[in-house]
Amino acid sequence: MTYRPLPASWPNQSKPLAPAYLIWSYLGGNVTGAVPNACNFGAPGDSKNENNVGGNNSERGWAMSKVRWIVVPLLLVTVVYIVSLGASDKNAVALPNPAVDETMAAKSGQETLVLAGGCFWGVQAVFQHVKGVISATSGYSGGASNTAEYEVVSTGRTGHAESVKIVYDPSKITYGQLLKVFFSVAHDPTQLNRQGPDEGTQYRSVIFYGNDDQKRIAQAYIAQLDQAKAFPRPIATQVVAFKAFYPAEGYHQNYATLHPDNLYIKYNDLPKVAHLQEQFPNLYQANIAGH
């Protein structure tokens, strides 16, 4: 079985929507990807060469007809499965303000917050639209520097979580307000080692605190939300000391903004930005931070 190589312009080959793209391409859809060359499924004994692989047209049509009977149901099941898994991310939750928070700074400045809440594309997209955020960068945190590469992190064995480094102005927004956005619209904090259709420890929910105040505010807010039963299940978010952040590859940066028609983005990430605008109209900004 031969495979056509994925182009460099399709970096999300390991994302869960990839199977749908692959199957559609297999059926003859106009999508390029690493898919089995359907022409290799000719009847036994057929002559096979680069230009005429799989026998005559009638035999090839018969083979492809059988393939379609098998693959079409798989495509439908895949799409339904993905949409159902991603649905939880679309249902934002209205939450109370943190009872414990820092006070708004009197002067402009810069503070940093590192969060992990599933695929960094959506988390970055949400915080880029929050007023007071200076920049939001996709990357990796929780593991070693020599494993901070997408393909390696995707194995789920590096200790890294797909994370977002948020630089904000404490005179315009507080740490607690950013956590409220994180818990309410950026992700589902009750999911353990997964987020929507993405599974693995690299998709876990984490707050990487940079000092004792951040730790105190984060732990207090989680306790407040759990006590209020704000979610149907306990919060699974880890509160872990920050060690290092490693920016992700360039093609991951601003991915949701640059690829709004990508099916993964449409189903999983654009609804988060829409919920941000609905629930936090005073915090929402149309232009993304840093641009």
Notes on the protein architecture:
The protein has 291 residues and is an alpha+beta fold. The protein has 2 domains: 18-89, no CATH class; 91-279, Peptide Methionine Sulfoxide Reductase, Chain A, CATH 3.30.1060.10. The chain is 36% helix and 14% strand. It contains 8 helices and 8 strands, in the order H-H-E-H-E-H-E-H-E-E-E-H-E-E-H-H. The strands form 2 sheets. Strands 7-6-1-3-2-8 form a 6-stranded mixed β-sheet. Strands 4-5 form a two-stranded antiparallel sheet. The protein is globular.
Set out the fold topology:
Blueprint: H1 18-26, H2 57-90, E1 111-117, H3 120-128, E2 133-141, H4 150-153, E3 161-168, H5 175-186, E4 194-195, E5 198-199, E6 205-209, H6 212-227, E7 238-241, E8 245-247, H7 255-258, H8 263-279
Parallel strand pairs: 6-7
Antiparallel strand pairs: 1-3, 1-6, 2-3, 2-8, 4-5
Helix pairs in contact: 1-2, 2-8, 3-5, 3-8
